[in-house]
Amino acid sequence: MRRTKIKDLLAHGEIGAKVTVKGWVRTFRSNRFIALNDGSTINNLQAVVDFENTSEDLLKRLTTSAAVSIEGTILESQGKGQRIEIEVENLEILGDADPDEYPLQPKKHSLEFLREKAHLRPRTQVMSAVYRVRNALAYGIHKFFNEKGFVYMHTPIITGSDAEGAGETFRVSTIDPKNPPLGEDGEVDYKEDFFGKPVNLSVSGQLEAEVGAMALGDVYTFGPTFRAENSNTSRHLAEFWMIEPEMAFYDLVDNMDLAEEMIKYLIDYAMEQCPEDLEFLNQRYAQEEKTKPQNQRAELGLLERLKFVSDNNFERLTYTEAIEVLRRSKPFKKGKFKYPVEWGVDLSSEHERYLVEKEYKKPVILTDYPKEIKSFYMKQNEDGKTVAAMDVLFPGIGEIIGGSQREENLEKLVKRMEEMDVPQEELWWYLELRKFGTAPHSGFGLGFERIVLFVTGMGNIRDVIPFPRAPKSADF
Amino acid sequence: MRRTKIKDLLAHGEIGAKVTVKGWVRTFRSNRFIALNDGSTINNLQAVVDFENTSEDLLKRLTTSAAVSIEGTILESQGKGQRIEIEVENLEILGDADPDEYPLQPKKHSLEFLREKAHLRPRTQVMSAVYRVRNALAYGIHKFFNEKGFVYMHTPIITGSDAEGAGETFRVSTIDPKNPPLGEDGEVDYKEDFFGKPVNLSVSGQLEAEVGAMALGDVYTFGPTFRAENSNTSRHLAEFWMIEPEMAFYDLVDNMDLAEEMIKYLIDYAMEQCPEDLEFLNQRYAQEEKTKPQNQRAELGLLERLKFVSDNNFERLTYTEAIEVLRRSKPFKKGKFKYPVEWGVDLSSEHERYLVEKEYKKPVILTDYPKEIKSFYMKQNEDGKTVAAMDVLFPGIGEIIGGSQREENLEKLVKRMEEMDVPQEELWWYLELRKFGTAPHSGFGLGFERIVLFVTGMGNIRDVIPFPRAPKSADF
Question: I want to staple A28 with a disulfide (CB 3.0 to 4.6 A). Which of A62, A122, B323, B375 is the partner?
Fold first, then answer.
């Protein structure tokens, strides 16, 4: 008999029906009740064993994480919180899990410990919930853009160009690592390398996405990006996934509108698709908050916060206005900010948090940053000082989206590249987009793990990606 | 006024409505008729200029690939093949395209030439059609698996393990390429590298996807994979995208059923979503075929072939049966095969093509290959000689899917790894999946560009990915 997924069974299983279920034992208690999970839902199916007619040997093997196949009949459940249970008629152990060796017993393990068991942690409630929410968000992204007629575009991972002009990159090579071929100048001769030149892992697909926008109109990327930064924080990964929409004929306001609409859509979609996972994560979040000192606790619970973000307009103001707001603020006047607040500086996390969490108590979109602290490709405003940039700042996360209108004027772009020492030879094709049929266009980047962090309420980015990559850490 | 996309306009634009459209000039003829395209569809919108009341200077700038913004009124079209056209009331040039410099004039360019202009080629009819079909196939994949309750899983790109145990890999590193740190043994000291050990770009996410399947039940990956093989063919890329579903409790038959269902779904989905693009590609394919000698032409046109694959069951037979069929075949008896046909050899392209194109005239799934020519992780059959592998072979493409039931028995897996010199230390976590709650499971890999090739009828894999990566080739 074909197996039925537990999610379907709990939702639609008819009393009296004979079914086959397969999954892993979460717990087995009173020698009778198996809590069975198959990953299709956070909820377990209760399977009731007739222990008098089951061999003791078999009962002993019903340990946490043992894989079993069960045939039985659906009954109305006598227990609380579950509509149905299954009366076991045939029980087969597919794979044992020796309780003396299996590391994830049914007790609370720290997330740090679970990271070391990344091959088993999806069997825990918390991680399986996170992965299902991550899945819903990923699908939500494709659905959102697909419904708007965007073309999903695979930009290259291995590239000779470095979009940001900043950020350390990973070198990709096949030459002899110990005795690299050297040229006449004594430097490594990359002509002998696989691609015939030095290449690295992409930090962004934006520049190539602009190619798409300038032909197909609206495009987006969703792929892995890489930063070789030696930062071991709860917010950074060496390998992470980014979504980068790029739209022809969009100005900065269109760009902000799209970013805000997208985030709200994603939050609503996750709440609609994963109510039980988010309910569980909501409770976990509440418990985590309780362990913090009173004055550091969030005002809103996880689900409240999601609903709040979905229901309210993001605050939009310019960088210049934000500087004024910050300088008028209590913490500034009392000298509580660690970093300076004056026009021209890059805002620090403390400033962004003040704006989002204290001043406006909602997501904030800052625009029109000083050109000195932004990338060469951003559209220069008429004031000669600022660029048409936007950063979307989120409570607890900080920058979740960065974007801009792009400089579509060839002369201005070339001048800015010269000023910022961005090599033009490598980007000849990017410049040609401005030479042939240029048009206003805009785009932004969303760090996928940042939105997963926000929606799941998890505290560490390494817990929202299956196999995190960080300095000195590339296990599995 | 907000711009309307040409696709929407052509489908739903109401006669008499005032609209704004933006896009690129495909052609401008008789000083009156602009064929305008904005990438939302392969079809152009005809915009009619009142040339008597338009300055000569402006008319001169209406060159191929110039970006324009047009306000006007929708009229019933007098021309053939189009329902509506637009009477231009306001015309603005957003970006010029000097006809003396713009390389893609409205004539047929070779696909080789277009590859060198990868930043402009999405503006051509053929490439924009390919990219839209590629987009539909990508979304179709997510839709198919999402509707079945699969969890989309991001497996790592940077990895210390090499799933296939074969295939050349790209090294990823941040150590000094010229003077790498050396250990006491005189070898490169990877402890000083970013990840503290040698790592490479993943050739497959399968092993990590198995982690997901053994907890979440049904998962799939869709991400980039890499092969550092020095092969400059029309079928291979150094960087390509793979889809790798992995399912708990699936045997080989379930696996074949899913693969066949998925491919048919994708073909149907593309035909439903991209009828105009595929009609164009169908004509292109027919023209290409005409340039071939009569006896090398395909029997079916592109659309006919897609429909045929969608409508018919794939032929399923074992490797052993296939060897018998081949040895009974005319080309074998006449000594026409270049490579030997005997039990134990890996089938060559000529053999696969014979089976698919001559013997069965439809997709073929071969199963139960000799274990010697397949990977260590495939489930060993009871005969001691074969493994529960499957390859899906397609006309014109060859292998489009490779998969297997996985060996879930720890002892058998360890023994096979020993026999094949696969290091166990690195894969301790993979082995633990068999130690704790193991269960039968299966999966397969679909090379995304292979299915895009098949559906678009293009001849070279470099023309179905925006920025192809191949030996000595990593431009853009």
Answer: A62
